[in-house]
Design brief:
Blueprint (H helix, E strand, L loop, with lengths): L2 E7 L26 H18 L2 E7 L9 H10 L4 E4 L7 H9 L2 E7 L4 H7 L4 H14 L3 E8 L7 H10 L4 E6 L5 H4 L9 H17 L6 E2 L5 H8 L24 E4 L4 E3 L7 E4 L4 H6 L1 H4 L23 H8 L17
Parallel strand pairs: 1-2, 1-8, 2-3, 3-4, 4-5, 5-6, 6-7
Antiparallel strand pairs: 8-9, 9-10
Length: 346
Amino acid sequence: MDYFAFQWHITDECDQRCKHCYIFSEGHPSLVEMPWERLVAVLAKIEQMCERMQRLPYLYITGGDPILHSRFWDFLELVHAHGIPFTIMGNPFHLTDEVCRRLKELGCRKYQLSIDGMEATHDRFRKPGSFKITIDKIVTLRQAGLHCAVMTTVSGINLHEIPQIIDVVVENHVDIFAFGRYCPTSADKASPDKGWHIEPYDYRDLLATCWERFERYRDSDTTFNLKDHLWTLFLYEKGIFKIPEGLDEQIIYDGCNCGNCHFTITAEGNLMACRRFNSYVGTVADDLSRVFQGERMERYRHHERFEKCARCELLRFCRGCPAVAYGYTHNFYAPDPQCWKQIQNN
């Protein structure tokens, strides 16, 4: 039975104000914590939805920093009692030996931290001292028997530091490493002269450099998750990924999971197709399975509308990142701004 993933923001409270954060980057009028009664009710709705759809729920519990929720441990006890697997995506600042031990006992599959550059760059994105604390807490997590994942948000500002980050995560025996691209949160940040933008061939060059690193570290403790769907294009051009023969041309096999097997739940109780752009589809007061099967979510399953991808042989396997495209154009179906593939007009 397949999983259905829920990225659940249980609180907006956070120790940092990251420059690329979707909550704080353009200002935020108030910090919201999902109340206990709603946490309990939403968990029941998640189980009901997954039972109807014959899926297994998987929770990515995040914030803000989820540990700052006033009922955090009560919530984990509840999730654990229901036997639902989960990952925590949070900050390093509260990860004591005791906290990590409790996370392990309550069934946490992995804890995801962020490294967004080498020390000076990372601390500029987040806050002074954050880089060193993050490295220290990788050790704390692993000593407690927890898997540690590190995620990097790539932009033009830290593009050149990604290979060094790979060295760092391998040296520190991180279990899983991945990166995704920054989604502009304003027209200002989408502007090439602001430093966030990456040119398509520069991004391809980055993937080539990272692939060399991944090959070098093939026998390390670190698994490299090829999260960005443009990896499919890169590996296709290298002859490593091949389109299987005999597949149904009407079925989407891989690529962006928006509208497929994922919901985002905000601390306010809104449902979103994807957290990385404005994709409101309903609220937790609604029937979740009906929202998932409804018209608002259906907008993200019209793959034939993609302006560039619909003419590409990789449509069913790639589609780049529509959230990044939306960040630049406010059009989910616009071409991925970092896709370097040339498409011939019909």
